Amino acid sequence: MFGGNMQGMMKKVQKMQKEMKKLQDDLKKRTVEATVGGGVLTLVMNGEKNVESVHIDPSIIDPEDSEMLEDLIVAAVNEANKKVDEMMAQEMSKITGGMHLPGMF
């Protein structure tokens, strides 16, 4: 009944799966940068959401106010996470043609 159409569709799905795996591997190597506090704290995160580096402007390090620095770090990590998610979603949409696939980024 479905014959060739089903085979063609399966080949397309397999091709898309291979492309998605390749893209996922590529995205793990990419990095995003999040800068907060007007540039006083910069954080670099890779596509696996591992923090690679943090730069803190020494002028904001105040032993009497560690809470401000803690808040900046949290904000930078959250912003970097958001950027990684956006990067992955954008790249995945190129492969899926904008289809929403449950469980994907």
UniProtKB/TrEMBL annotation:
Stored InterPro entries: YbaB-like_sf, YbaB/EbfC
Localization per Swiss-Prot or TrEMBL: Cytoplasm, Nucleoid
Gene Ontology molecular function, alphabetical: DNA binding
Subunit structure: Homodimer.
Family statement drawn from the similarity comment of this UniProt entry: Belongs to the YbaB/EbfC family.
Function: Binds to DNA and alters its conformation. May be involved in regulation of gene expression, nucleoid organization and DNA protection.
Stated name of the protein: Nucleoid-associated protein DKB62_06470
Organism per entry: Megasphaera stantonii
